[in-house]
Write a structure and sequence with these properties.
- Helix content is about 65%, strand content about 5%.
- It has helices at about 1-30, 35-55, 60-70, 80-110, 150-165, 170-185, 190-210, 215-230, 245-255, and strands at about 115, 120-125, 130-135, 140-145.
- Strands 1-2-4-3 form a 4-stranded mixed β-sheet, with helices on one face.
- Helix 6 (about 170-185) runs antiparallel to helix 7 and helix 7 (about 190-210) packs across helix 9.
- The longest helix is centred in the middle third of the chain and has 31 residues, at about 80-110.
């Protein structure tokens, strides 16, 4: 029963994810935030399998009793349901410990990071971490030390990006998506959801920065410079540091003009 429920939930989540990709593209053509598609996908992927399983018709009691009576003298089979549940609990415990260790490590490191005077947010300097936003309830911007010697236009673009993350509470969305994956580690499409949501959050943040008047070509240069520095990207935080393929995608989206009639198509 548990294996069937897992397989059903995975299949449904995968189909919902494919629908989420389509909705994300549609929202992009309309100029709306892409992350909305994945918020909806998470809600449906978590609620729909649970409700459908609860509403499924149970076998009649007589059939269950007859099955039990017929197998009374047979050897006791392996309880796969119990094994799957134990494996689920063990995987969640291991991932939760790793996640907590990552947060504790960042908290200990941040105590040694000097604070920079900034009227808009708490900003600290780190040797090899950032740019990123750390913290959900008291967020702070982590900047790498090399930015202190960078031109003011570069620093202002980086800080503007991180301030947009804080204003939109993006760090809370990322942490929530990661916790869902930790609690349901067997549902592999949810790990893909987390990656797609993070990418959508970064693209949405880029769009908000550009709407504030930042030049797209200059902003693209800043993204490339930050990506080439190779600083550490904190796992539980929204950050400018992304794999090369995602950076290319973000830059291509920024520099591509909307096609007339694309949303209608």
């Amino acid at each position: 029963m548990i294996a069937e429920a897992f397989a059903y939930a995975i299949a449904v989540t995968l189909l919902i994810g494919l629908a989420g990709v389509c909705v994300e593209r549609f929202l992009a053509e309309l100029g709306r935030p892409r992350r909305i598609a994945w918020f909806g996908a998470y809600a449906v992927a978590i609620i729909f399998p649970l409700v459908s399983l609860l509403l499924a018709d149970a076998r009649p009691v007589e059939a269950v009793l007859a099955s039990s009576a017929g197998s009374a003298s047979a050897p006791v089979p392996i309880d796969w349901d119990a094994l799957l549940l134990r494996g689920w609990a063990a995987a969640t415990a291991v991932l939760a410990l790793g996640y907590a260790a990552a947060w504790i490590r960042l908290a200990l490191l941040s105590k040694r990071w000097p604070r920079v005077a900034n009227e808009q947010a708490r900003v600290v300097l780190a040797d090899d971490v950032g740019p990123a936003v750390l913290g959900v309830f008291r967020p702070r911007i982590v900047l790498p030390r090399w930015l202190a010697a960078a031109p003011e236009t570069v620093r202002s673009a980086v800080v503007a990006h991180e301030l947009e993350h804080i204003a939109a509470r993006d760090q809370a969305s990322i942490v929530a998506a990661q916790l869902v994956a930790v609690l349901l580690p067997w549902n592999l499409p949810l790990w893909w959801f987390a990656r797609r949501l993070r990418a959508a959050i970064e693209v949405d943040c880029d769009a908000r920065v550009l709407r504030r008047g930042v030049d797209p070509a200059h902003y693209a240069d800043v993204l490339l410079e930050v990506g080439q520095r190779g600083a550490t990207s904190p796992y539980p935080a929204p950050t400018l540091i992304e794999p090369v393929t995602l950076l290319e995608k973000r830059i291509r989206i920024m520099l591509t003009r909307p096609r007339p009639g694309a949303a209608l198509r």
